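Example record

Each entry pairs one chain with its bound ligand, adenosine-5'-diphosphate.
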Amino acid sequence: MGDFVVSLNNIKKVYRLGFSRRRVEAIHGISLEIESGGIFGLLGPNGAGKTTALKILLGIVFPDEGTGSVLGRPLGDRSAHHRLGFLPEQPYFYGFLTAEKALNLYGKFFGMDHDAIKSRSSALLDVAGLRHDSHLTLGKYSKGMLQRFGIAQALLNDPELVIMDEPSSGLDPLGQKEVRDMLLRLRDEGNTIFLSSHQLSEVESICDSVCIINKGRNVTGGPLSLLLAVEGVDRITLEGESPEALGRLEPLSVRVEQAEGITVLDVESAGVYRALDAARELGMGLVSVEPHRRSLEDLFLETTKETSD
Ligand SMILES: Nc1ncnc2c1ncn2[C@@H]1O[C@H](COP(=O)(O)OP(=O)(O)O)[C@@H](O)[C@H]1O
Ligand SMILES: [Mg+2]
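Structure tokens for the complex follow.
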């Protein structure tokens, strides 16, 4: 099991339904390994077994077969639980509490002392972009704000690993971007995040590594940069040129060229959003992004087709 934060080894799970004990084979054999630091995505269509796999890690569901570990402890061992954070797929929060009061309450559940709750809540409300709305009751929050609050809540006890089930599902594009930015800030602060998603663009833009599953089986996985780089790089064309832009974009690119007021950079697929963020900060207009390689969507469709009936 080595130094992995999470490892699952050939996990199988059958649910039994109703009086007839009808079998629903949720997971037929999933293996994965997650290293410390970064964002790991468990990717698959609805019904692939993502939530079941997460519940197995959390000790809520017991596997029928297979082994695994979470933070160095075997599956089901409760001693790892206080070192984990969890955001369920459909979190429920008390609508009559303000964000501040709700975090205070959760902090007490975790057994944190008053000062620790205060300083940690304050930092997390900043990361979540909820500082100015922290006095509002959660009932007045938008879906996106609630989701960011949920992520803050999952991180309150400063967990070594935070597990999130579909953190962006049901959000509009702006809400998704705000959640994505929050996750990237948390990653940059050194957190280890394990999220499940069926949204390819989300996974492609924020995850460092992925495991793709379909119908309860592994399809493919690994560092996203390796999985997608097969057919090369993306080309981003921007308005404007300057030595400052060149210096800033060079480390993010495979190649940069500037001519006649236009900057063209070839960027590794997984780094496109980072380069676009840098371009936006530099105030450069976006002309085009051309895919010269297979996208996660292509990879996903190719690989899931191979494993379907
Ligand atoms: N509690 C349960 N009882 C019976 N079947 C379940 C239960 N939870 C999930 N399933 C079934 O297991 C399969 C995988 O579900 P799930 O893990 O929720 O997938 P995902 O999160 O990827 O959408 C689905 O066929 C689902 O219907
Ligand atoms: Mg699910």
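The chain has a mean pLDDT of 90.
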